[in-house]
Design a protein that fits this description.
It is built from seven helices and six strands. Helices cover 43% and strands 20% of the residues. It is of the alpha+beta class. It has helices at residues 8-21, 31-42, 47-53, 58-68, 90-100, 132-137, 157-169, and strands at residues 72-74, 77-81, 108-116, 119-126, 142-143, 147-153. Helix 1 runs antiparallel to helix 2 and helix 4 packs across helix 5 (90-100).
Length: 171
Amino acid sequence: NNNIELNSYISTLLLGGITLDTNHFKSHSTKETFYYSYRLMENGAKMSDINEWLKQDIRDYKRRQKIISTVKVINDIAIAKGTQRSEYQKEEIAKTADSLLTFNKIKASFVIAKIDKGVIGISGRSNGSINVGKVLEKFNGGGSETEAAARIDDNNINNVIEKLSKLIRNL
């Protein structure tokens, strides 16, 4: 409804949600996304505030870079892993999978890491050409074509990578 009045703070919060949901307008963005973003900015939304809210901790960034440094590419699909002895937040592995999609010729990415004692998580992301939800259904996970996750009761990251690598080679 165009008759709703929003102050600049509420407009900024709404635009921040759009920014997060679209991964900074890189995915799931339509002409409506840009239209409503424009309308929110016209209403006083401040991108500078959003950028400040979305800043990341340098230690978290360095930790994700260590995961990225392990990347192997099979059929334009990036696979990276956390260390066997560290536990990671699900959001951390999801952000890493998002980051891997920004590289040339990468159509999909999977990040595998221990998320709890005896539990390994996989976060999958895709540009839409590979259905990561279908791939992760093989691990009793799921999601959409472009974003998916799985949780596996296993202690060995390399076992999970081996199974995932076989699936990817057969796509």
